Amino acid sequence: MRRIVKPLVLLVASLALAPLLTACGDREPDPVIVAPAPPISARGNPAQEIDAMRRHVPITSEITPLPMATVENFDMTRARAYPMQPPTIPHSIDGYQVDLNSNRCMLCHARSTAAQFQAPPVSVTHYMDRDDQFLAEVSPRRYFCVQCHVIQTNAKPLVANGFRDIDEVLRSERAQ
C-alpha cells in the first residue's frame, strides 16, 4: 500500500504546483526542435538511392507502375532457373478453383487422367506425407498448387541469373 501512495502523492503535488510555477515565470524553457537527420537506407546510402525495384525513384514519390506481364499460353515447359525449382505453369489459370473443397488442376494432372488430357502427371512426391508414406490422394501439404507453381509470363527478369543446369555443366566439361 505504501508503494502506491507515495507516487500518487507526488503526482498530485506536482499537478497542483504546476500552475503556480507557470504564473511565477519559473517554468522550464521550451524544448529546442532539431530537424530530423536525412533518411538512411539499409545500405547506408541516402534514401534517394533506392534499389532498382523502385526504378531509382525516392520512396517519398509516387511512380506509375509497370504494365502487368501477360500470360504465355505456349503449352511448352520452360527450363528451370535454379536447382529444384518447381515447374512453371505453361497456360492461363484464370478462373481455376483451388480451395479446400476443389482443385481444378487435378482434373488434368491427376495420375489417373493425365494421359487422357495429354498433361504431365503430378509427381509422386505430391502423394507422399511428411513421413514418406504414399497416400491415395494428393498430400494436403501439396494440395494448393500455386503456392509453389507460377504461371509463365513475358516479364523480363529483375536480376541477372547465371544458373546452369547440371547437363549443361557436364557438356561444357566434356568439350574442354
Automatic annotation (TrEMBL):
InterPro entries in UniProt: Multihaem_cyt_sf, NapB
Region forming the signal peptide: 1-18
Keywords: Electron transport, Heme, Iron, Metal-binding, Periplasm, Signal, Transport
Subcellular location: Periplasm
Keyword Signal among record annotations: yes
Keyword Signal among UniProt keywords: yes
Taxonomic superkingdom: Bacteria
Membership in a protein family: Belongs to the NapB family.
Name of the protein described by the UniProt record: Periplasmic nitrate reductase, electron transfer subunit
